What does this fold into?
Amino acid sequence: MTVSDVLGVWSCRLQGSDPVLFEFAHWAEEWSVPVPRLREAVTWLVEYEFLALEGDVGGIARLWVNPSVAFAPWTDPRTVASRHRIPYITTAERGMAAEQPVIIEPYDAAKWDACYQRRLDLIEDLTPAASPPQAARSTTGSGCHG
It folds into this structure.
């Protein structure tokens, strides 16, 4: 189990601009890891602002995913970004070969608006033959990068 696995769980459960509920005991059993180790991964993701935590009751966390990492297709990433003042995360031009491969910029409404506009342009460019589910699979993820 890696933080990528944890992020993948959230990415697959996104519905609009809603939070994702994450049951630690269920996923710890699913991945055969102790709950504390899973909590450490979630804490790391929250600390580095890949996720925003909005409560943890009875072992079920209510989490918001940073839309620059993943968000549900056909949604407006500005809602979650604004609500939690989520930073804008991008990868450097040279990716992992760059000196600083991940760039984390503080929350900026204008950047999130530009992200949303690029998203709309992408949706408009889809062919009429592509149904929303097909289009969703091809555009899920960090589709805000210019």
Observations:
- Residues 92 and 101 are 5 Å apart (CA to CA).
- The radius of gyration is 16 Å.
- Helices lie at 3-13, 24-31, 35-47, 78-84, 109-125, 132-139.
